[in-house]
Amino acid sequence: MKKYDVFGVGNALVDIIAFIDPNFLTKQKIDKGIMTLVDETRQGRILADLSEVKKELRSGGSAANTMIAIANSGGTCCYTGKVTKDTYGEFYKKDMEEAGVFFETTPDANGHTGTCVVLTTPDAERTMLTSLGISTSLTPEDIDIERLKASQYVYVEGYLWDGDSTKKASELTMNSAKANNVKVAFTYSDPFCVNRSRDEFIRLTKDYVDVVFCNTEEGLALSGKKDPAEAVAYIGTLSPMVFMTAGKEGAYVVENGKVELVPGFPVKPIDTTGAGDAFAAGVLYGLTHGFSPKKAARWGNYVASRIVQEVGPRLSVRLMGRQDEILQGFKD
Predict the structure, then answer these.
(1) Which residue in 39, 163, 216, 278 is deepest, having the highest Cβ count within 10 Å?
(2) Rounded distance between C-alpha atoms, residue 8 and residue 2, angstroms
(3) Given its phi and psi angles, is residue 181 left (phi above 0), alpha (psi -120 to 50 degrees) or beta?
(4) Which residues constitute the domain of residue 137?
(5) What is the CATH number of the domain that holds 228?
(6) Residue ranges of the Carbohydrate kinase PfkB domain (predicted)?
């Protein structure tokens, strides 16, 4: 029996979460609703202008959010990312472990821990300004192959394709997983990641990936299609299993070429931060605990529906042991 359900690899970032008026984005000339990479100076200026706004800190990064939500559902997971020996780095490790995730890293004495300023407007849309810091120095040497072997799945985020060393660490993770009969799950992360690395993402999906995660925008960007159902069907020709979120409609599931739409849980969102990460967590929990793909997607939809009713990417309620109650009556 495997020790871990999922072995996650991603950019280790401390999320700095703030609710703002939409005019703040206009004044700062920030593109709404996407993730933008910024340098430390630019991020510092923005934080200075937010000095009077209440902020919350969370250990984060896309894959880290997923690992935390898996642990919340009752799963076991470990996470590999890079932080430094600074205040944010110390906070990151402690916060991850308190959330139930084994966090392994070799702290670096140089540079600064990566941070992501998450700006949420009243319409629940989130805009992210990320200073990657030391997270981009993750290397193949940071990957613990023995822990990887002890996992059912590895989960790799597409954001890692922005750096040469992080890309190499990701490919080593996928190669090692394939060599040791560990399934590979990959998230396309963001439309800009897809647009920048489309050919590589297609190659990776064909060569390594057992389970793809994406949202509709990412699916359309990768496939070149205009219809969501056609997009997810195309991705299903590259990988045996695909999960594509479709907002309030739920999520598309493709298994061996068959496309189905699994309904979601209607809620009024207050903050969409981490919704896709939470969905992936629910699905991965399900797949590692004997759920069918459709049932796993239904649980993923539920976890995502709960996260969008929270401030930030962390659930305030425990979902462990509630699967039977929530999924009662759902038919595969």
Answers:
(1) 278
(2) 15
(3) left
(4) 4-12+62-113+133-327
(5) 3.40.1190.20
(6) 56-316
Measured over the CA atoms of residue 214, residue 281, residue 173 and residue 242, the dihedral's sign is negative
Q: Has residue 23 been placed in a domain? A: no
Give this prediction's pTM.
0.91
The structure tokens 């462990």 sit at 320
CA distance readout (Å), 94 to 74, 87, 90, 319: 19, 11, 6, 22
The encoded tokens of residue 87 equal: 């205040």
- For each of the chain's 332 residues, which pLDDT tens digit applies? 789 999 999 999 999 999 999 999 999 999 998 888 899 899 999 999 999 999 989 999 999 999 999 999 999 999 999 999 899 999 999 999 999 999 977 777 678 999 999 999 998 888 989 998 999 999 999 999 999 999 999 999 999 998 899 999 999 999 999 999 999 999 999 999 999 999 999 999 999 999 999 999 999 999 999 999 999 999 999 999 999 999 989 999 999 999 999 999 999 988 888 899 999 999 999 999 999 999 999 999 999 999 999 877 889 999 999 999 999 988 88
**Counted domains in the chain:** 1
Contact between residue 140 and residue 49 where contact means Cβ atoms under 8 Å apart:
no
* Inter-residue contact 303 to 288 (CB < 8 Å): no
Residue 119 lies in a domain: no
